[in-house]
Amino acid sequence: MRKSDSGTTTRPASGRHPAGLRRHFAFGLRHATVHGLGEAGAAGDLDRLRSLLHPGVAVVVDRGEPDGSEVRVVRGPYDAAEVLAHGLAAGPGVVVQERAVNSRPGLMVVDSGTPVAALAVDFTGALISLVWVRMHPAPLRHGVTV
Description:
Layout: E1 2-3, E2 9-10, H1 18-43, H2 46-52, E3 53-62, E4 71-75, H3 77-87, E5 94-101, E6 104-111, E7 114-124, E8 127-135
C-alpha cells in the first residue's frame, strides 16, 4: 500500500503485491525459456541451446528402468546441448509439446501419439540449470510427475 498525494492509502496500480509480480514474471520467463528450449532442440540449434543453459547445467537421462541402472548424467553447456538436440530432434511423427511437468513448465516428446520422453526443467536465475529426462514416461499418463 502507498499514500497518494491526497494522503489516502491506495493499492499499487496492478492490484498485485510486488512479490507476486516477481513470481508471475519469473514463471513467464521460465515458460518462454522452456518454449525456446523445445524450439532450439527440435531445430538442432546448438548455439541457441547453449545460450539458454547455465554454465553448471546438468542433464539427467533416466531410461525408466525400475532399478535405476540406466541413469546417465551429462554436465556443461556443450555436452548438454548435444544431448538435448539429439533428444528433441524433429522427425517423422515426432512432436515436442510444452507441458507442465511437476507443476512447472516442461516438455513432452511424443512419437506418433505415444509419449517417449518427459523433460522437467529447473532454473538458476533465468538460465536452465537442470534438465531431468524421463524416457518411456508411462507414469505420466494421468499425471505430470517425472
